[in-house]
Amino acid sequence: MLWNSNKxxxxxxxxxxxxxxxxTKSIYYVRTQNGKLAAQTDVLLLRTNELKKLFPxxxxxxxxxxxxxxxxxxxxxTIIESQKNIVTLxxxxxxxxxxxxxxxxxxxxxYQITGISDGRSQKLQIHSTDTLTQVxxxxxxxxxxxxxxxxxxxxxxxxxxxxxxxIKYSSLIQIxxx
Length: 178
What we know:
- The two termini are 30 Å apart.
- The protein is an alpha+beta fold.
- The chain contains 3 helices and 7 strands, in the order αββααβββββ.
- Helix 2 (48-54) packs across helix 3 (56-64).
């Protein structure tokens, strides 16, 4: 009994050390085989009560998606930021009886757009920020008519903070060792 208790404490200590390393490390980028950059981070292994205390915003987002925190098995939050400078030709046009627009800017929670018109061309700088949240949970029962004797299916829900964004595709593959 003492041996099992010692092993359990060693595993718990290793989990906590791994979590500390994962929290203190920042995101780092790796180059994939096709030459693109991919972001990589270490995985945190948290219990439900630890998730509620350490990451209350993420715990609330799970609740907001209609999932009980106790049924969640994985949670992924990704902040996506994109920026693009655009140069395009400007056609001759009259706005409000010969009023010329030279500089403009627009900003809300998700977009920041600034533009400069210098005669024939227009330069735009678009900066966009979005947050993608994914939760994997034990959802519907495989055979609901068997009530508690039927195991629950793993399901995922993904949401984005930008109301103008649409999720076109989402897939989660959980790989198990043979």
